[in-house]
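Exercise 7b. Backbone tokens:
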């Protein structure tokens, strides 16, 4: 009798653990802005962009594109050597159900990269802080949505640096768009355009 009871308890415990695991596996991945309340007039703008980004990252279309994309692993400036597409996808959003990023919007000052190469922002490798140069952002009603989409694709790119993926050593780096950060940024922009039937240009390497 005790054996039967123990058996039932073990089965029930296994079932509960399996259900809990399944619940975790079905949770949406989410990027959370740790300092959202400190962004002043950019708060709603950043929130709109991150909402779009999370929608893309959790879409079946995003998974399909990432798992079939041919990434360039040559001449990287540090970061990961060649990985399978499944490993890339897992490294980006399969490792946890949420991550926090600290997003800063600052003047570009005298930074040469911002002037010479049209750099929109910067994230140190494996850091969760991204700085974006505010001259790229246009909050006027006629340009707001384009800026939101561009910023979402920019954060997708910078998030890849947070996860350890790097760009090419070569300059200008923007010519090498098949490395993981540029590819993910472009994929994000393209999928937003598909989802909302828009045609925004998210080229992060030129400023009109």
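Sequence design result:
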């Amino acid at each position: 009798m005790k054996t039967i009871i123990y058996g039932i308890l073990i089965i029930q415990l296994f079932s509960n653990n399996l259900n809990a695991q399944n619940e975790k596996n079905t949770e949406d991945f989410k990027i959370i802005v740790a300092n959202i309340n400190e962004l002043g007039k950019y708060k709603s703008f950043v929130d709109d962009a991150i909402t779009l980004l999370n929608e893309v990252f959790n879409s079946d279309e995003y998974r399909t594109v990432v798992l079939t994309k041919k990434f360039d692993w040559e001449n990287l400036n540090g970061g990961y050597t060649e990985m399978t597409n499944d490993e890339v996808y897992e490294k980006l959003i399969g490792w946890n159900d949420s991550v926090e990023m600290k997003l800063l919007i600052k003047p570009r000052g005298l930074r040469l990269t911002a002037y010479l190469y049209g750099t929109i922002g910067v994230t140190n490798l494996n850091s969760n802080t991204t700085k974006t140069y505010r001259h790229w952002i246009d909050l006027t009603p006629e340009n707001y949505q384009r800026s939101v989409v561009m910023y979402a694709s920019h954060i997708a790119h910078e998030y890849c640096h947070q996860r350890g993926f790097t760009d090419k050593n070569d300059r200008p780096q923007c010519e090498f768009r098949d490395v993981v950060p540029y590819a993910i940024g472009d994929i994000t922009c393209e999928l937003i355009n598909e989802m909302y039937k828009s045609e925004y240009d998210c080229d992060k390497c030129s400023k009109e």
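Instructor comment: The radius of gyration is 20 Å. Residues 129 and 198 are 29 Å apart (CA to CA).
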